[in-house]
Write a structure and sequence with these properties.
The protein is globular. The chain has helices spanning 5-16, 52-61, 82-85, 88-104; strands spanning 22-26, 29-34, 37-43, 46-50, 65-69, 72-80. It has 4 helices and 6 strands, in the order αββββαββαα. The protein is an alpha+beta fold. Helix 1 (5-16) crosses helix 4.
Amino acid sequence: MAYDEELAARVRDAVSERAPFTEQKMFGGVAFMVHTHMAVGVGGDELMVHVGTDGHATAIADGAHEMRMGERTMRGMVAVPPQVTADDDALHAWVGRGVELALATPPKPPKKPRSP
């Protein structure tokens, strides 16, 4: 699945204003990793936001929908349709949710190298 490059550029700018990050190809799109955690991403034309289980219901009430991977619902992750993120202020608010959660979570320990 291709992803919206223009949305990715807008998200990249919004994340860079808040925290250092890396990018990683994930879910057929691109994920923005903050503090070793996926904060937000872009899949197709939608913004993916890690809101955590505590923020899930609020995010749904604010216009997002549950994120699904095949038959599995990804609790704590939401997809935000393009009409909800068309406005830069709205996009920045959604990105802020994901970045704040990533920064509040202890970083993951480095992965051990695979043995040959």
